[in-house]
Amino acid sequence: MNEQPSRNILMLALVGLILVSVISISFSGLGELNTQGGSMKTIQVSGTGSVSAPPDEAIIYLAVQTQDTSATNAVSENAALTTKVMQSLASLGISQSDIQTSSYTLTIQTLTSTTNSMQPTAQSNLNAVQYVDKNAMQITLTNISLTGRALDAAVSAGVNEVDGITFTFTPQLSASLQKQAIQLATQNAANQADAIASTLGLKIIGPTSITPSYNQPFYQTAAPNANQTPIQPGTLQLTAQVQTTYEFTS
Questions:
Q1: Which helix (H) or strand (E) holds 242?
Q2: Coil, helix or strand for 122?
Q3: Domain-by-domain residue ranges, the chain?
Q4: What would the CATH number be for the domain defined by 63-167?
């Protein structure tokens, strides 16, 4: 008769021990979380820096387009004119490696004309087929002063389509300007963090993370006409941004 009460007491003791262990583990984890979360106090700021410079690269987009009722004639005429264009550019000192074919197409166009017959109410449709051959290319110039002359020479040699001119930075100049811009952006972020800390009576310890980003500037003109040949590229602006996190203490 004494076995049952002893067994009940043992079970109650075991349950109590398990509850104490669970509560102990829960409070232990909560204290660790608070310690980790409160160990670092940070300020996040975004800094910006910009530098301006004249572009040192121009890309001219142009094309030679020919058309004929014979595909062979359209292609032959286009090849002759394209060769003439490349020779005229080479005479300005432009390397063949700076002339790149961007697309080449040969398409068929159907031209429909309507003529009246002897009877006013009767009409007949005459369908004519012509072939359009188009050789589009881009000319990359690192000598900006040649832009207007190259455009004139290409048009005089046979180019009959100009899609525009893009001014930008070469990779070498872009890398140099990025370095200057990121230095200005980083200093701008540091000044902002110092201003915040000074206002709130805090002390900046140092940055914990910095994430930079840049824009790649370019300026594109519309297709020029004869009155626009003197090309003025102006200046371009490169901007850098940094997202910076600073640790501080009170």
A1: strand 236-249
A2: coil
A3: 41-54+172-249, 63-167
A4: 3.30.70.2970
Q: Give CA–CA dist 198/195, Å, rounded.
A: 5
Task: Give me the mean pLDDT over the 4-33 stretch.
Answer: 42
Between CA 228 and CA 237, with CA 232 as vertex, the angle to 5 degrees is 135
Residue 136 CA from chain centroid, whole number:
23
pLDDT at 113 > cutoff 90? no
Distance CA 231, CA 236 (A): 15
pLDDT digits (tens, 9 = 90+) for 141-167: 999 999 999 999 999 999 999 999 999
Q: What class is the 41-54+172-249 domain?
A: alpha beta
Residues forming beta bridges with residue 126, ordered by sequence position: 113
Q: Are 50 and 181 in contact (CB under 8 A)?
A: yes
Residue type, 128: A
